[in-house]
Amino acid sequence: MAHVTNYNLNQKFDFTSAFKKSILTVMVIGAVLLAIGVVLAIFGGGHDSAEEGAGHAFHWYQRLYANLWINNVYFTGIAIIGVFFFALQYAAQAGWSTGFLRVPLSFGYWLPYAGVLMIVTFFIANHDLFHWTHSYLFDKNDAQYDKIIDGKGSFFYWPMDKGTFPVFYIVRMFLFFGFWIFFFNKLKNLSYAEDLNGGNDYWYNIRKWSAFFIIFFAVSSSVSAWDWVMSIDTHWFSTMFGWYVFSSWFVSGLAAITLITIFLKEKGYLPMVNENHIHDLGKFIFGFSIFWAYIWFSQFLLIYYANIPEESVYFIERLSSDVYGPFIFVNLGLNFVLPFLVLMTRDSKRHGIFLKLICSLILFGHWMDFFLMVQPGTLGHNGGIGFIEIGMLLVYVSGAAYVVFGGLAKANLVPKNHPMLEESYHHHI
Amino acid sequence: MERDKNFVLGVYDDEDVLLDAVTRVRESGVKIHEVYSPFPVHGLDDVLGYKRSRLPIAAFFFGLLGTTLALVMQFYMMKIDWPMIIGGKDYAAIPDFVPVTFELTVLLAAFGMVGVFMISSNLKPWGQARIFDLRITDDKHVMAIDIANNAGFGEEAIGDVLKATGATEVNKKSFE
């Protein structure tokens, strides 16, 4: 076998002004679509007189908040999955992925922005997104007192009185983002220092911190899914929800890693990443699309089969809705049927063109998954996919892409002193 | 001379030498019957020019059989033979059928694949294993060449080709 190892290991990603410009163009297009959507929403009605009578008037900005929340949760997930994938390679002592390891790592650069956006959005939009933030729910003398939410109140408000300020909830949000950013910086700094100094100590050190991060992430990914997504439907709960959100995050993160790796290869970077590495990434996407569908269906089947009203309300709200019903099937088609059928053959996983198509569709499909988690509980029949949704998604995609590519350009594209780099060159399947 | 009976064996110590040897033997025009090695050698299939296995096709059809069986079984039981109302659903509620259908598909695909593999690679219970050299289970790679299949070359000439590509020994093996 040929042992070609004279790759240029000092290559850096050049974040050219032309590329910056095209990302910013997408952002401007998104912003324009968003503005059109907002104007249409303000002047195009959407005020339901019947609901206004009940004291729950619908305002156009609620749809804006819901969209902010969908994208906050979705892009936070992709960012943290990048760090998780990086940590996973060290914890599993995997060598095959070393060539493109800086790609998932750079996703973490979005985390500080994601954290600020998430916390600011929560304080602006709390009553409009989260039913449990209304204090009358916890007042026994109020006509709208809710016994079930009162029972869950401590999870948000401890140690303060229920209905005041959600200390526990806010602390968790700060804690998760704080630790995620801390672990990202720790792993990133160790990996960058390895470039300068070399030696196996860095690898052992990163493995240790990766293990700590994975333990923390195991708990925090689940709890953040309850906090940020499941608490929207406050009455309802599912014990599978943490896994459901994680699987959605993981498969979108893998799709993003694959897309950026193929993109970099087409630009002439990462010559050591060949079709064998792409094949393994494709297998990951294939496998975790099925995993997501498995979780989705397991959650659905138990609720469908048991037919307990307080559980089945979640699916009735979605499946029997004119607004969301069709999207459920589009969601399953994009995220399960299509990747399952297209990525089944070996060739489709080894050729960039199929993966680029499927990864893009998966990234849109899982955005839709979060759309289906957030909007029915916040907007009801006033939701849907329109200018606001598409515009906001484009703004977030370009913003996150700008930050991630900027982060990618900060250091070497290849961890050149990684002890398993040689193993990665000869990965063969 | 009868085919599949008399073989010239080239014994190799090192898998890199073996990979190179396979290419060179094939270039010289000698047809290789099979290469045996104690562990998987990466790239061996490629240099031997093997086509991809057709086992996935067998797996697909056994899986399809499993799906069909599972659906027919459940429809017959739940709708025709002994209808029961469960959870207020229709007798034949499709989502309920998914787990059993999935499991039977996987089960039949796996069993079918193992069975086809066993039979096609002569690991069937009534099959008789042909050991070319006991050391292929330990530390030697053996390239077997069917003499009758290489009529253009004599036994000697094949041996010379093997020697030239780095074989440490050249032996002869005949089966009844």
Walk me through the structure.
The complex is a heterodimer of chains A (429) and B (176). Chain A is mainly α. Chain A contains 17 helices and no strands. In chain A, helix 3 packs antiparallel against helix 9 and helix 8 runs antiparallel to helix 9. The radius of gyration of chain A is 23 Å and the shape is globular. About 1% of the residues of chain A have low confidence. Chain B is of the alpha+beta class. Chain B has two domains: 89 residues, 2-Layer Sandwich (Alpha-Beta Plaits); 66 residues, no CATH class. The longest helix of chain B is centred in the middle third of the chain and has 27 residues. Chain B starts with 5 loop residues before the first strand and ends with a strand. Classes of the chains: A mainly alpha (429), B alpha+beta (176). The interface between A and B is small, with 10 and 13 residues.
- Low-confidence stretches of chain B are none
**Count of domain modules of chain B:** 2
Helix percent of chain A reads over 70%
Please write the string of helix (H) and strand (E) elements of chain A. HHHHHHHHHHHHHHHHH
H and E order of chain B: EHEHHHEHE
The backbone outline of chain B, from C-alpha atoms, is elongated
For the largest beta sheet of chain B, what order do the strands appear in spatially?
A: 2-3-1-4
Q: Biggest interface and its residues per chain?
A: A-B, 10 and 13 residues
Q: Work out the helix count of chain B.
A: 5
End-to-end separation of chain A: 14 Å
The beta-strand count of chain A equals: 0
Keywords (chain A): Membrane, Transmembrane, Transmembrane helix
Protein name (chain A): Quinol:cytochrome c oxidoreductase quinone-binding subunit 2
Pfam families (chain B): ActD
Organism (chain B): Rhodonellum ikkaensis
